[in-house]
């Protein structure tokens, strides 16, 4: 199985830590959207797409990357999405589903989603030093590795 993880991690490196944990299980490189040619994705079996959550949405660079993927009828790699955030996804404004929908419209079968809490110093939390300091912690990273093992098992090579 050939895998790649596309990640935007800007505030504290939270999302990159999660991407790296998954990447080690999947034997996948972790790259920024600017460092991958969208045409190269066809050469992979699995692509992870993730970022931190900003104003209840994936990072604009990641959304722009996904929006810019060409729509093709040919077979696409499986995909999964992942995120880190200080707060859980709000039912009144989901952020995972819109990204999944765009990936599916582009022809990517989405096989799962992963999210965990992370240190968040967004404006209202900044005066008190943020929330969820110390996250993602080792338990979160263990959950990320477990998620990646489950995704990898779909390809018949669980580790």
UniProtKB/TrEMBL annotation:
Transmembrane segments: none annotated. Residues 6-79 form the Flavodoxin domain. It comes from the Bacteria. InterPro entries: Flavodoxin_dom (IPR026816), Flavoprotein-like_sf (IPR029039). This is Flavodoxin family protein. Coiled coil: none annotated. It comes from Streptomyces beihaiensis.
């Amino acid at each position: 199985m050939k895998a790649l993880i596309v990640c935007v991690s800007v505030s504290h490196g939270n999302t990159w830590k999660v991407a790296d944990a998954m990447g080690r299980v999947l034997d996948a490189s972790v790259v920024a959207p600017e460092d991958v040619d969208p045409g190269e994705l066809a050469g992979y079996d699995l692509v992870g797409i993730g970022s931190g959550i900003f104003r209840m949405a994936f990072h604009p660079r990641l959304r722009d990357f996904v929006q810019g993927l060409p729509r093709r009828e040919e077979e696409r790699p499986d995909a999964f999405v992942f995120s880190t955030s200080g707060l859980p996804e709000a039912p009144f404004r989901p952020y995972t589903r819109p990204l999944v929908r765009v990936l599916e419209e582009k022809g990517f079968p989405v096989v799962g989603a992963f999210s965990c809490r992370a240190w968040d110093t967004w404006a209202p939390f900044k005066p008190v030093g943020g929330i969820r300091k110390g996250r993602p912690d080792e338990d979160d990273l263990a959950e990320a590795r477990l998620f990646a093992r489950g995704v990898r098992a779909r390809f018949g090579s669980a580790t």
